[in-house]
């Protein structure tokens, strides 16, 4: 197999027919040696039926269905594990990532690159809040992380078999796939594109999910937040010294000592610092616990098309 296309889908019944049409066109030059793998991430709408219909219409489409909703990054992982191609193209189901860029990405790969990632030159149809948080997130992540994770890129990319195999060797449960590819190394290059608005449905990343995704990325690629505790200790030491100067100063100069207000302030300041460092510690400990359980990332419940190498028989 030359080319595998992997698409994670969660409640995307409306997008899938459009997606399949555009994808089938985009892979035309390689159609006889290609497969399109749609992963149903435990959707509650008609996503699976839509995938089966797509397979009937275009045999090049395969569907795999997870036993429950496991999240974007795990669904993508399931598709990547099922992919058999020498080159693997991944994109979102909502057509925010244009499939038409594939020939350009293939050309870059012909020149010897292992990873050709899409860089968002512009985002259309997204809220100012989403744009601003995404902008800040990628910059904040880069200052904290030891790995150089390309800014303003998603999982939209074409990767070579050897870089995918490297990523699939990483067993972590909290997956931040774009970071894992960056960490794996090999020759990488970005290709700019305009991120359009969703064709149908709504975002599956509400604020809570965005926050979880961001902490997964931060804790997965940096231990610097843990060092913040040490720095905060110095800050609180400094504040204590300043307060001591103030208290003794007013005692000597005015023969009075500040009352309960300053005591209250000091107590809340230091407990805030302690709770913050405890919280950061908790994020890491919680992830350690989840990793240590060694649970499988997902189970497949159904497949259409060729049986994948990772088929699990639950009968
Ligand atoms: N997705 C998924 N499982 C989830 C949430 C999202 O497979 O639990 C898929 C979704 O169907 C889409 C992609 O992940 O193909 C990106 O999600 P979305 O477009 O909602 O994110 P956004 O573009 O708003 O950041
Ligand atoms: Mg989207």
In terms of DSSP E residues, the strand content is 15-25%
Helical residues, percent? 40-55%
Strand order of the largest sheet: 7-5-6-4-1-2-3-8
Number of strands: 8
Query: How far apart, in Å, are the first and last alpha carbons?
Result: 29 Å
- N-to-C SSE series? EHEHEHEHEHEHHEHHHE
> Helical element count?
10
The global form is: elongated
Bound molecules: uridine-5'-diphosphate, magnesium ion
Low-confidence stretches: 308-315
Radius of gyration from the alpha-carbon trace, in angstroms: 24 Å
Largest sheet: 8 strands, mixed
Mean pLDDT: 87
Structural class: alpha/beta
How does this structure look, described?
The protein is α/β, with parallel strands linked by helices and about 325 residues long. It is built from ten helices and eight strands. It has helices at about 15-25, 45-55, 70-80, 100-110, 130-145, 160-170, 175-185, 205-220, 225-255, 260-290, and strands spanning about 5-10, 35-40, 60-65, 85-90, 115-125, 155-160, 190-195, 300-305. The protein has an eight-stranded mixed beta sheet, sandwiched between helices. Helix 6 packs across helix 7 and helix 9 (about 225-255) runs antiparallel to helix 10. The structure holds uridine-5'-diphosphate and magnesium ion (MG). The site of magnesium ion has 5 residues, from loops.
């Amino acid at each position: 197999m030359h080319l595998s296309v992997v698409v994670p889908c969660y409640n995307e019944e409306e997008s899938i027919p459009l997606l399949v049409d555009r994808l089938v066109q985009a892979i035309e030059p390689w159609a006889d040696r290609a497969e399109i793998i749609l992963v149903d991430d435990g959707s509650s709408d008609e996503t699976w039926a839509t995938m089966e219909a797509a397979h009937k219409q275009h045999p090049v489409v395969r569907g795999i269905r997870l036993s429950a909703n496991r999240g974007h990054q795990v669904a993508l992982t399931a598709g990547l594990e099922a992919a058999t191609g020498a080159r693997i193209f991944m994109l979102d189901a909502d057509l925010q990532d244009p499939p038409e860029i594939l020939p350009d990405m293939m050309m870059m790969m012909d020149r010897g690159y292992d990873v050709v990632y899409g860089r968002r030159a512009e985002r259309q149809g997204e809220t100012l809040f989403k744009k601003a948080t995404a902008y800040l997130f990628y910059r904040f992540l880069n200052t904290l992380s030891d790995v150089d994770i390309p800014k303003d890129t998603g999982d939209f990319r074409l990767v070579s078999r050897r870089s995918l195999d490297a990523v699939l060797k990483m067993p972590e449960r909290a997956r931040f796939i774009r970071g894992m590819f960056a960490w794996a190394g090999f020759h990488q290059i970005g290709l700019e594109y305009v991120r359009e608005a969703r064709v149908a449905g709504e975002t599956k990343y509400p604020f809570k999910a965005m926050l979880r995704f961001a902490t997964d990325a931060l804790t997965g690629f940096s231990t610097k937040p843990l060092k913040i505790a040490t720095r905060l200790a110095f800050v609180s030491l400094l504040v204590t010294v300043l307060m001591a100067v103030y208290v003794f100063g007013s005692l000597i100069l005015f023969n009075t000592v500040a009352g309960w207000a300053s005591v209250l302030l000091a107590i809340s300041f230091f407990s805030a610092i302690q709770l913050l460092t405890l919280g950061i510690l908790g994020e890491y400990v919680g992830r350690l616990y989840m990793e240590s359980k060694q649970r499988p990332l997902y189970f497949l419940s159904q497949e259409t098309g060729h049986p994948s190498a990772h088929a699990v028989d639950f009968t």
